Request: fold
Amino acid sequence: MALVNFIVILLAGGVLAGLSERINPTLPRRVSLAVILLDLVYLLSVYSGLDGASAQAPQGNWLLYFHHTWIARFGINIELAMDGLSFLMSALTLVLGAIAVVSSWNEIARQQGFFQANILWTLAGVLGVFLALDLFLFFLFWEVMLVPMYLLIAIWGHEDKAYASMKFFIFTQVSGLLMLLSILVLVNLHHSATGSYSFSYFDLLNTPLQPSTAGWVMLGFFIAFLVKLPGFPVHTWLPDAHTQAPTAGSVILAGILLKTGAYGLIRFTVSLFPAASMAFAPIAMALGAAGVIYGAVLAFAQTDFKRLVAYSSISHMGFVLLGVFAWNSLAIQGAIMQMVAHGFSTAALFMIAGALQQRLHTRDMRQMGGLWARMPRMGAMTMFFVVASLGLPGLGNFVAEFLVLLGLFKVDPVLCAIAALGLITAAIYSLMLLQKSFQGEPGPDRQIKDFGWLEMGTMAVMVIGLIWLGIYPQPVLDIAANSSFGSSVMEVATASLVK
Amino acid sequence: MTAADFTSLLPLLVIAAGIVVLMMQIAFFRQGALSWLLCCGTLLLTALSIAPASQVPAQVTPLIAADSYSLFFTAVVVLAALFTALLSREYLEHRKGENEEFYLLLLLATSGAVVLVQATHLASLLLGLELLGVALYALIAYPERSEQSLEAAIKYLVLSGAASAILLFGFALMYAVLGTLSFTEIGQRLAEVSLHEHAVLITVATAMVFAGIAFKLSLVPFHMWTPDVYHGAPAPITGFLATVSKGAVFVAVMRLFLSAELYSYQGVITGLVVLAIASMLVGNLLALLQDNLKRLLAYSSIAHLGYLLIALILFSSLSRALAVEAASYYLVAYTVMTLAAFALVSIISNRGETEQDLIEDLKGLLWQRPFLATLLITALLSLAGIPLTAGFIAKFYIVTIGAAENTWLLLSALILGSGLGIYYYLRTIYVMTQKREAADGTVVAKPSITASLVVVTLLILVLWLGIYPQQIMEYLHAVASTLA
Reply:
């Protein structure tokens, strides 16, 4: 039941936040923050109270399991489950959700209630994606979380919001339909093999598949997740959506929504179709490496602060793709690590971008420069997250990218060398970002407010998180290892290594 | 005829009696409110009379069948007409002149639709079609002072008349070859006669019947009339036209298809595939270019009929029962969500004498009338096929069977069409969410209680069909397995 509550709390909180605007226009953001923190505390307390073997899941290593019949006609159930990976992702969602609310604390001038409601509903959808194990339910959350996110960009976005929000929605929706098609082919194959419909992950794991069919079905899932990740060459929605979204929207997009794509790859693409994914791995890895380099090169060409960070996301998420398809435990741990570390570093950079835009009314770095003198605290924070994102040893992103490269080297040294170039290019564009905006000649004298205690507090959370991930990553790796995606994936991986 | 036969015919008898009573009332005591009440009462009674009729499912004369399939759709048609009647009241209040005949015509059109839904014979099919069509000509032209309505009515009159003539000619040629007009007997004779010997006649007859029916369903390339007529007709009638009129024809076609086993002829299926793909793509593409909400919905309904045709095509597959179930579900979902969309358009655009039905006119609706806007957004998302709505389950059905039967060409057209569809539905939603710059006085009036109740009921149905479809799925499953 706890699994349902995690989602319902956010949904109900959204309604509450929306209504609270009638009492006081500043109330919604407080309600929203309180609801997210409540959900986070609840999640952590449930997690710490687990005794290990409480879940009644049909197979595998699950911490929590919930099952309720929904549409019996097609064997559709409300089936939720949590393992180490989904716990990690859910906790990340709630932490970054709280950060997103704070990052837009003073940004939204109108319709605050509806704004906060949409944030909470998006988070509910994302949690659903991370927890759903019935493929119908998963698809439902996958699609439904788009609507509030679309509204966030379309209503509170910047100058080019109509184009950006539309592009975001259409890319995800159409690729989602491909996934739906794949799900239904899989369900039909299961139906013809057993005579009954089922959308359950556990039933579909064991569907007998012809290698050729498996390849096509896998591709449907892969494309949907690649769009969301976003991977080269279906990444073009991301720079627009990130740039035009309000700060909270960018934080949620970069920090959480992109991770649903990575999560989908690990949980569904690779686990449901191990053999087909194995065969497809060289192409997937090539796309990953291409994304790393391509994102970095384009990031270097940007003059818009937010757009630069957006392109850097494409580069960083390329490492996730590489890690997932390198087929060994080192690389996959690196990919999971990257999901968490990138969530923090990019969310922080987007928050800084939002703060800059609010203060300077521009995102153009050519009009910035010398800001350190005016805003030393913001400058220091930017410095920290820039070096984190370029992969400075001792911080989370370094551990992640290092693990991925280490795992990758065993499989494909050439691709590994290409991807390692990404670390150098990351240093170039990241330092350029810092230099153009915060260093150099100060512009005309302006009164600019530095970060206040609320912003610094939020930043501190992410700073501590990244340092912790960088110096002592073992707990996160342990939690991630306590997942059930491992078994089938690793079996195939070992089998292929032995061969 | 026995007493049981009369029980089976009860819905038709009730609505016919209601028509006579309403006509008398208008002749002797002209009063708008009373006419409206009589119309709604008749429809309600008709809906209630379905329950006793369903106790004795029977074929009454060769013309009409009152089985679970036709009674289910009778209920859908009658309820849709009831919603239309409830909405029309407010719409007509803005209009001076005699409004009583509007309700009479609505009842006549509904009785035509009921005959169509229950038809098992080409004669009753044509009878229903004409009863529906003739009443609709007048309904479209009802706001007679508006040029657009008259233009729409004349277009519909001429084109629909031509289509009926072609259809009739096709039936006649068919009769010349087969010597029968009953659905089931057509199938038997078709299997017996040598198709080679009558190749020309059969081909011409089929082509004519196809063209006539495709016109009534506004499938591409017989869709030219749809946007103009939808645009010109009064908004509640546009909803009726898009749901009851199309739906009833489709129900009759489905029965013809099943009883006569037309799905076993490859030529028929190929023709349908072409029509379906053209409708999905052209309908969605042209919808992109519209700036009028009613025209946009007209093109979107063309596209939806294309999706629906996929289910009809899949009657030829092994999963026939499932395809019938899917088509029936799709029809119900389409009726509910389209009716909801047009009901909301009718409420929102009804400001004074003229309709303000441009997409631009919706600007700021989310902040002006958040309740109406939320309902309209839900209806549009359902039409776009987003989960939790009826529209999604409907597409889910089609894709499930399509994937089982490997009809990749049709499914790619469906995915492409849906992708295009998202664009124009979202554009409409986007306009609603934007702030209106200056208050230029055209505030959307608060809807009346009746109208609010109607749209809320429809939207609850949209969500109920989308979130908890188990019951209706089971029901349709049972209906479909008796038929297929």
About this structure: The radius of gyration of chain A is 22 Å. The beta strands of chain A are 64-71, 76-82. Chain A touches chain B at residues 70-74, 110-111, 139-140, 143-144, 146-147, 150-151, 154-155, 162, 165-166, 169-170, 173-174, 177-178, 180-181, 184-185, 187-188, 191-192 (CB under 8 Å). The CA atoms of residues 18 and 113 of chain A lie 4 Å apart.
